[in-house]
Write a structure and sequence with these properties.
The complex is a heterodimer.
Chain A: H1 3-14, H2 21-25, H3 44-55, H4 61-65, H5 70-81
Helix pairs in contact in A: 1-3, 1-5
Chain B: E1 8-17, E2 20-21, H1 23-32, E3 37-39, H2 41-45, E4 52-54, H3 59-63, H4 69-73, H5 77-92, E5 109-115, H6 120-132, H7 143-147, H8 151-160, E6 166-167, H9 175-188, E7 194-201, H10 205-213, E8 244-252, H11 253-259, E9 265-274, H12 288-302, E10 311-313, H13 322-333, E11 342-344, H14 347-350, H15 357-371, E12 373-374, E13 399-400, E14 405-412, E15 416-423
Parallel strand pairs in B: 5-6, 5-7, 10-11, 10-14
Antiparallel strand pairs in B: 1-2, 1-8, 1-9, 3-4, 7-8, 9-15, 12-13, 14-15
The chains are: A mainly alpha, B alpha/beta.
């Protein structure tokens, strides 16, 4: 799976949680998950679980805490899936 | 806001019931004596003695009109029922659901939507198994908001921007009626202008299992679901579990008149008490003295003569207690059987909604008052012998009648009682 495919899959995971439709429409690697998409901070836990399930990886709490942007999530998945 | 003369009226109603969703459909179903009780295969698979119950229909199609995908991700049936009925009561009272990005809070409106057992399905299906398996991390973020008792009211507060008291009461099967009483006092005391009040209950078989084990559910009509809920009948053999939500918008009269909205009726009498598990009362049986005191207190507060009460929407579940309840009404109102108002049971149509029952039945009572009818009390053609003296007071067909007032009572495990009296608004 290349970065573009991972990006698209991450966007699909984020979609139901995003409250800012405009930010979702122009989503990019640098888009902030909480700041731009206005995802409720509590739901980051659920997004990480869906990433784990969707990409069959395990995400440590420390790595999960570092995810701020869509790019952070994509890069974390790229690293984990080798 | 503070004035001792404040009057409390009903300006909105919302309902999600086993026999209908929405007010017009609910009123029609009540009038027609339409049952919402059906057979549920899961109860048979799990060896329940009672395999029938009342569950609102078509909610999956309905819920997306009210709730976003993200909201539904964190909601169980109890919360969804409460949200739909509460939002309907809000819009029925002439208010608009605020946009999601609105920053305005409505400081004068609150919600007390009660529940009996609430999110037990979330606990049983997800929280317990995953925790026991050492998979706490896999619980995700939504467990607390789904199992906290106040989750049903809290979700609605966010949808509507409520800024007054938002909480969830619980008093078993008296819950919904208790919420109405609590909301009344908050408005009466000048602490709120509007209160969304009532009750909700999910349809989890985990909720119903405990009652099945107590052998208080009717196990004799699994092949005849619509005949299973039999309040006041000689063949009553236990109640039928139900679910759903019923919510009323209570409002200060001045506020309602300023807004120029429809008024369904006035809430003129309210009472709550407990029998203290004395004088025949227990955790599961009512103290008749406390029941009569509760009914009398509501009547006294209303200022009405007992003969002005045109109908009683009883608690009447189809257990051994039905004849005792009717006897208590007769004594409390000081009326001989032949002088009694029409007495009927909404549970005969929708089963016993537990924490939702008071809400579902108060909505029924207000619709009956406003639209001028008393719905049939079905499945009691074989009237209980102790109720023979009341035979012509129990309608088996819908009665069109210009009601001036209707009384509604609920009783619950814990020996708790609630009574409200709605009066035609003049």
């Amino acid at each position: 799976m290349d970065s573009k495919e991972i990006f698209d899959k991450v966007v699909e995971i984020l979609k139901p949680f995003a409250k800012n439709e405009d930010a979702l429409a122009s989503i990019a690697m640098e888009t902030s998950i909480m700041g731009d998409l206005e995802v409720n901070s509590a739901r980051l836990v659920d997004i990480v679980l869906e990433i784990e399930d969707g990409f069959d990886i395990e995400v440590s709490d420390d790595d999960a805490d570092k995810v701020q942007t869509v790019g952070d999530a994509v890069n974390l998945i790229v690293a984990a899936t080798g | 806001m503070s004035s001792p003369e404040r009057r409390v009226v009903i300006t909105g109603l919302g309902v999600l019931a086993p026999n209908a969703n929405g007010l017009d459909a609910y009123a029609d179903a009540l009038r027609q004596g339409k049952s919402g009780i059906t057979h549920h295969p899961i109860l048979e698979e799990l060896n329940f003695a009672c395999q029938v119950g009342g569950i609102p229909n078509d909610v999956e199609q309905l819920q997306t009109q009210y709730l976003s995908e993200e909201e539904l991700f964190a909601m169980n049936a109890n919360m969804i029922y409460a949200a739909i009925a509460t939002m309907d009561a809000w819009t029925d009272s002439g208010l608009e659901v605020p946009p999601i990005d609105s920053e305005e809070a409505d400081w004068d409106t609150g919600a007390i939507v009660g529940t009996g057992i609430g999110g037990i399905d979330t606990i049983a299906d997800t929280l317990g198994p995953r925790t026991q398996a050492g998979r706490v991390k896999r619980l995700g973020s939504t467990m607390v908001e789904q199992i906290m008792s106040s989750g049903n009211s809290a979700r609605v507060a966010g949808k509507l921007g409520l800024g007054n008291q938002v909480s969830t009461n619980s008093s078993a099967c008296n819950t919904g009626t208790e919420a109405v009483v609590q909301g009344y006092h908050r408005i009466k005391q000048g602490m709120a202008n509007r209160m969304l009040v009532g009750g909700s209950e999910g349809h989890s078989h985990y909720t119903w299992a405990g009652f099945d084990a107590m052998r208080v559910l009717n196990r004799t009509k699994n092949d005849e679901p619509e005949a299973a809920s039999r309040p006041m009948s000689a063949s009553a053999a236990g109640f039928i579990p139900g679910s759903g939500a019923g919510v009323l918008m209570l409002e200060d009269l001045e506020s309602a008149e300023e807004r120029g909205v429809r008024i369904y009726g006035e809430l003129v009498g309210t009472a709550l008490n407990c029998g203290g598990h004395r004088q025949g009362g227990s955790m599961t049986a009512p103290n008749p003295v406390s029941v009569q005191r509760c009914l009398r207190a509501a009547l006294k507060m209303s200022g009405l003569d007992a003969r002005e009460i045109g109908a009683i929407n009883g608690h009447l579940t189809a257990t051994f207690a039905d004849p005792h309840e009717v006897d208590n009404w007769s004594k409390a109102l000081g009326l001989a059987p032949s002088e009694m108002p029409l007495i009927h049971s909404t549970k005969s149509l929708i089963g016993h909604g537990l924490g939702a029952a008071g809400g579902l039945e108060c909505v029924a009572a207000v619709l009956e008052l406003y639209r001028g009818f008393v719905h049939p009390s079905v499945n009691c053609e074989d009237l209980h012998p102790e109720l023979e003296a009341y035979a012509d007071r129990i309608p088996h067909e819908c009665v069109d009648i210009d009601l001036q007032a209707i009384a509604k009572a609920s009783f619950g495990f814990g020996d708790v009682n609630g009574c409200v009296i709605f009066k035609k608004f003049n």
